[in-house]
Amino acid sequence: MCGINGFSWEDGALVKRMNQAISYRGPDDTGIYTDKNISLGHNRLSIIDLSKKGHQPMSNKEGTVFISYNGEIYNFKEIREELEKKGYSFASDTDTEVMIYAYQEWGHGCISRFNGMFAFALWDSEKKELFLARDRIGIKPLYYHYDGSRIIFSSEIKAILAHGIEKAVDTGSFSSFLQYRFIASDSTMIKGIKKLLPGHYLVFKDGKISIKRYWSLSWSTGRRSLEHYAKAVDKLLNDAVEKRLMSDVPLGVFLSGGLDSSLITAINARLRDEPVRTFSVGFGHETDELGYASKVSELLSTEHREIVLDYKQLTKSLPDIVWHMDEPNTDITMMPLYFLSKAARQKVTVINTGEGADELFSGYYHYYVGSSWFDYVPRIAKRTTYESYYSPFKTTERKQLLGNRAKDDRTLHDCLKKKGHILSRILHFDIEHELPNWQLTRVDRMSMAHAMEARVPFLDHRMAELASSIPPNFKQRGLEGKHVLKKTALKYLPRDIIYRKKQGFTTPMHAWLKHDLEKFADKTLSESNIRFLNKEYVQRLIEKHKKIQKPRMLMRTSYQLLILTLFDVWHRIYIEHDAGKDAVRNMGFS
To answer: Which residues pair with 195 in a beta bridge?
Structure first.
């Protein structure tokens, strides 16, 4: 796990600044390679082959192909064996070197052979071609800026800003952010900076770029029995977890006490000889799952650690968290995850998580609309219900807030209109857009803020392909989500863990907003320098929030206030200041 940087010209000083901007992603080593057509930078977090042989940017023996790479290829040993039979020899035990020779053998098609999470930049000096690629699900990030003749790229936006490009908010992206809680396109919050989409690769040659998609889900439903699919999920999940135990450094599991993380922990315990190290976070609040996590830990005999937070820790650390997130993110669990990652990093360098199971197997309440119980509801009504669920700010509210800058993004609408079962269309949207742009961004940034690698066994691309082939009624059975996954889990966990009411990795958001954050939101938004926002509308929202006392009535207004507050903090750091750590220190939080 690392940070990668680079651009299509020679400038050793610039690539060094880019490395420094995201040095926390790889504190074990740093490297630079330049020639007149390319500059590559790398920050290394050593996971596999801890020796100097793993130094990056890495080249082939001839010095004609160079790579800067972030991630893990879990099947690299199998690929290496295949390449050795073809006559290739290796100087290290790294997956990085395997990727170089896989490219030499199969060209751009090498990525279809990789099982893993990755974002990489590969420079072919003979072809004068830069090859950028991102993994199928979008677990690892990759951003770029292309001005029509030159390209600059990085694992994070803040490193691209070291180039000194003009900083301006993309108001169309901001409108999408208000509509979905994330940006459902290849754009980012900063005009001119784009993200390479999951399952895509980019080629830069002769001053031009071309982007191609190399993977997508087919959603072609099978016709086998529930028992068949439960066994298939069991077999594949065991293989996915086993592959993600590959590490030359200590490894643990984030354990919330819910089904997904408990199942990952149980399979870890089954496959490992030593006790599994598990980590949980809570607030000493009734929404905590610490008791469930403790029960699972005791059942599986793990070495368990609990982290208990208070409100003041969240508020005080908010600017640092927003800075690390790179773009505004409204997934409030990023805050406890920041502290959980910090605590876990004292014991382990690699962590397995349960992310992705809800999107693959229909685990959230809003998937009810895809149940056969709602077959009597017209499809258009189902689409409208789901679109409404996703919008923290309705169309009229966005127009009041942004005026003529407000735009209706039709990505979700168009996705739900396509042929196929409504649940499959909903899950497709979430896997393709919500996961990489919301949840996985949080996991990557909060873990890498503390130089820790987070792995997601459920999001092995083979599991995504299997899940997309399972009939919808085996995933959503009435109001019971993840039906097939629960059948699989019965082999490993007691029924009271598997079938208890879903709670989620939550924070007492409304209580927090009513305590520390409401005062800060009032001060911050009242003094905001964001010119394109309707300040009168924002002030009415603040006053409305102050008057509401019942937690049940707070939900939507609290979330709207949180979104605008997080955006304002981001705007001050990334637009009004230089996006550096000094901007965070000068925010005036206490």
So the answer is: 143
